[in-house]
């Protein structure tokens, strides 16, 4: 079953928690014991006897326990698809959380309160969607119950948003008149909006086309080398890791990067069983036709769509640390399992998150600022542009002394 990853964006009180709660509740993704606790504590009850926002907020408390990049992920599934929701706070001071959540998402749901219409936050979240190349946006116009399910309210907000979308080149936008609280047009179509001809939000989420993998290329990254020390297995050498994108098939000719070695896949194992093919996301052990010098972080790629191997990188980054970024600073760049030293060579420009305009950057980059920089790594990095492959096109910067994540990076 395929997986859709999406992020919900909205400003305080637009109903994000209620919407997520509604999706989890109506798709029966809540565990029974959670449900009992919820029913007991619900004060702000709806017809189902539960407070949906409390459900999400209760789960959200996990997030407040000191996780560095605090995006909470929620999982649910229907018979058609699995879903991963990135739930990041919407306030300006949490831009970094939005960036982290959005860079892993296929789609953004932008919540708008029907009574308030498009606000500054709506614009900012849309800019982030555009910056991170989220091609699909679902605009959920919420609290329709509070405006008597009026078509006119929906249409006005829709045409106002359409202008923003056009400016930001967001070309695939769908609009939904919903009430997260009452459940209108969330899972099934509501009788109160008979003027609305589109799908329910969940129908859309179940059907929306996912990006096809053809141009991403096949990528596998070595997490560790397996070399048992026993006599009878002395010829065994496997490379454990994850298929980052595409697929690998037994017999494929591959290139091993950055060293640029060529060999063939001799055997693929998944959970100890031999397989012909391994697909994106699967943890596998790969055996090769030749005995080569390979280490953690190396990338296996098939001949078509080879990645770039370079020391000089152009990066768009969101600065996540209280301590500012300065020209010449050294960090560790982590791209999945590969960790290399990197130095900031140039700070090109800053992007104003309120209007996407490029501005001259200061010598110091502060928390939540988005900048274009040039980095040089100590060893060559194997990467794709973020546009082609989000997994191999993104990375984080880590501070060597504190070991904390200081930037989220998109490779250009
Ligand atoms: N009438 C009505 N009220 C709603 C609807 N959706 C949410 N609410 C109410 O709006 C208030 C805020 O909802 P939340 O879901 O907590 O909003 P939020 O966006 O998650 O807010 P934060 O968690 O603070 O970011 C709550 O009192 C909800 O019951 C809706 O569709 N109709």
Question: What is the structure about, briefly put?
Answer:
The chain is an alpha+beta fold and 412 residues long.
Outline the structure in words.
With 412 residues, the chain is an alpha+beta fold. It folds into 3 domains: 205 residues, Rossmann fold; 84 residues, Elongation Factor Tu (Ef-tu), domain 3 (Beta Barrel), CATH 2.40.30.10; 104 residues, Translation factors (Elongation Factor Tu (Ef-tu), domain 3, Beta Barrel), CATH 2.40.30. 18% of the residues lie in helices and 37% in strands. The protein is built from 7 helices and 24 strands. Helix 1 packs across helix 3. The two termini are 31 Å apart.
Which percent range fits the helix content? 10-25%
CATH fold annotation of the largest domain: Rossmann fold
Q: What strand line-up does the widest sheet have?
A: 2-3-1-4-5-6
pLDDT averaged over residues:
85
**CATH second-level architecture of the largest domain:** 3-Layer(aba) Sandwich
């Amino acid at each position: 079953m395929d997986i859709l990853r999406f992020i919900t964006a909205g400003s305080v009180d637009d109903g994000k928690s209620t919407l997520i709660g509604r999706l989890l509740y109506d798709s029966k993704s809540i565990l029974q014991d959670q449900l009992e606790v919820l029913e007991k504590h619900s004060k702000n009850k709806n017809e189902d006897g539960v407070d949906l926002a409390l459900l999400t907020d209760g789960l959200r408390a996990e997030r407040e326990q000191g996780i560095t990049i605090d995006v909470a992920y929620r999982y649910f599934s229907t018979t058609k698809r699995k879903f991963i929701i990135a739930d990041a706070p919407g306030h300006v001071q949490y831009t970094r959380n939005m960036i982290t959540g959005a860079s892993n998402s296929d789609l953004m749901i932008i919540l708008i309160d029907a009574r308030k219409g498009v606000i500054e936050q709506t614009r900012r979240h849309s800019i982030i969607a555009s910056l991170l190349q989220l091609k699909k946006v679902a605009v959920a116009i919420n609290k329709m119950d509070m405006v008597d399910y009026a078509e006119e309210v929906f249409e006005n907000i829709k045409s106002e948003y359409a202008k923003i979308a056009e400016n930001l080149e967001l070309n695939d936008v769908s609009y939904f008149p919903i009430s997260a609280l009452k459940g209108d047009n969330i899972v099934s179509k509501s009788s109160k909006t008979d003027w609305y001809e589109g799908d329910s939000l969940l129908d859309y989420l179940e059907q929306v086309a996912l990006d096809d993998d053809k141009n991403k290329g096949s990528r596998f990254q070595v997490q560790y080398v397996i070399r048992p020390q026993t006599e009878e297995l002395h010829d065994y050498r496997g490379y454990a890791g994850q298929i980052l994108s595409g697929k690998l098939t037994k017999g494929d000719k591959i290139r091993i990067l950055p060293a640029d070695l060529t060999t063939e896949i001799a055997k693929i194992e998944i959970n100890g069983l031999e397989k012909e093919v391994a697909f994106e996301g699967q943890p596998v052990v790969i055996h090769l036709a030749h005995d080569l010098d390979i280490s953690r972080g190396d990338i296996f790629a098939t001949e078509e769509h080879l990645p770039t191997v370079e020391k000089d990188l152009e990066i768009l980054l969101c600065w996540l640390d209280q301590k500012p970024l300065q020209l010449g600073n050294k960090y560790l760049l982590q791209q999945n399992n590969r960790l290399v030293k990197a130095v900031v060579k140039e700070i090109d420009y800053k992007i104003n998150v309120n209007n996407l305009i490029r501005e001259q950057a200061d010598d110091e980059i502060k928390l939540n600022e988005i900048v274009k920089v040039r980095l040089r790594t100590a060893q060559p990095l194997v990467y794709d542009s973020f546009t082609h492959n989000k997994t191999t096109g993104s990375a984080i910067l880590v501070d060597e002394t504190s070991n904390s994540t200081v930037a989220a990076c998109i490779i250009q």
